[in-house]
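During the no-cost extension, the postdoctoral fellow (Dr. R.K.) reprocessed legacy sequence entries with the updated structure-token encoder. One reprocessed record is reproduced below for audit purposes.
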Amino acid sequence: MPAPKTFEELTGGNLKLAQELKDVYNNDIEKVDTLVGCHSEPLPKGFGFSDTAFRIFILMASRRLKSDRFIATQWNKETYTPEGFHWVQYSTMKDVLMRHYPELAPILKKSKNVFAPWTKLPESSKYTGMETNAP
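Re-encoded structure tokens follow.
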């Protein structure tokens, strides 16, 4: 994935954001750190975060899975109780979120992918910050 050469390229043509970044980074795109760059990129259709953030996530997630002994070498009923093993094996991220945040259940039940932007909860209309999943 080639690094963007201009602030306009980084922001996907968002000229206002590009100018703000130019001002903060003294017009030097090389000074933009990864996190700020990821938050400045446009989101691919259907994604909740940038392409760069997704690629970093995929690389780090696979590395962590390979080095986690509880998954890589001790994924068995001897390490986990049979009940715990079944629970982990057959629970999804949606199940975990609904178990810990039951108020999300009405929205998550309609969601095919919990990592994609969700339909807003009515309470969300009070949020006045920057919208990351606006069309």
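The first helix runs from residue 7 to 10. Helices lie at 7-10, 15-24, 34-40, 51-67, 69-72, 82-90, 93-100, 105-108. The remaining legacy entries will be reprocessed before the final report is submitted.
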